[in-house]
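Subject: design request, 114 residues
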């Protein structure tokens, strides 16, 4: 029987998501993958190169899953919460880019603990 919490909103899910990304190396891989998603999307549209757009999921998930399977050694949240996970990648990307990530992770750990 699963005792895993069921998330019904993005903002209740995001703290959990952050706790699953506690290792900076994993976050770095996610950051690179998300940055490449943005580059591939914009380049694909501007250059009308649809192969770049087709490569987006492989690039994004490739970096993220390496981080989960080999660094964090946990199951990617995208398997259970695909849309919340996708959105969380972009929010985490923004928090890394703006230097807020350490504060957000600390707050998430406080919020998730029973």
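Subject: RE: design request

Done. Sequence follows.
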């Amino acid at each position: 029987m699963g005792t895993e919490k069921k998330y019904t909103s993005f903002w209740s899910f995001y703290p959990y998501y952050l706790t699953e990304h506690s290792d900076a190396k994993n976050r770095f891989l996610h950051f690179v993958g998300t940055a490449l998603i943005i580059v591939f999307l914009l380049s694909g549209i501007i250059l009308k190169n649809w192969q770049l757009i087709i490569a987006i999921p492989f690039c994004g998930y490739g970096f993220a899953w390496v981080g989960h399977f080999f660094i964090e050694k946990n199951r990617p949240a995208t398997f259970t919460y695909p849309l919340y996970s996708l959105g969380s990648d972009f929010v985490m990307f923004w928090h890394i880019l703006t230097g807020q990530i350490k504060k957000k992770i600390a707050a998430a750990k406080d919020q998730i603990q029973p």
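The first helix runs from residue 10 to 19.
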